[in-house]
Specification:
This protein has helices spanning 16-27, 46-57, 79-93, 108-116, and strands at 8-12, 33-38, 67-72, 98-101. The protein is of the alpha/beta class and 119 residues long. The protein has one domain (8-116): Rossmann fold. It has a four-stranded parallel beta sheet with strand order 3-2-1-4.
């Protein structure tokens, strides 16, 4: 099996059902590094908090050998700030990478195609 050398950043929030599918698609390429950037709940509403925590917990289902990095915001940011800070954090640590959100289920071929693209 071929493993992906290009790091992946996954922007997450509270969509656990779709993130589960995203992780399943990522598992097909078993990247060596995965970054997760997550916004904080928008309110103290228990339903909102539970959705965010359930989504974050899915990171624990990654069962192949890889380095996992997390950026979990402590306060809620507007979407543009949360996403841009996650991307900035990712590129403070990596020269290149694949960036997806928690509802982007990609094919195995897409990951390897992206890895081959010139900088």
């Amino acid at each position: 099996m071929e493993y992906l050398n290009t790091p992946i950043l996954v922007i997450i929030y509270k969509r656990s059902k779709t993130l589960k599918k995203v992780i399943e698609s990522i598992k097909k390429v078993k990247p060596k590094k995965i970054y997760f950037a997550a916004n904080a709940p928008a309110s103290n509403n228990s339903s909102e908090v539970r959705k965010v925590l359930n989504t974050r917990d899915l990171i624990k289902t990654i069962n192949w050998e890889c380095e996992i990095k997390r950026l979990f915001h402590k306060k809620h940011l507007i979407a543009s700030e949360s996403i841009s800070s996650g991307i900035s954090w990712f590129f403070e640590n990596e020269n290149e990478g694949i960036i997806i959100e928690d509802d982007c289920v990609l094919s195995r071929d897409f990951y390897f195609f992206s890895q081959e693209l010139p900088l």
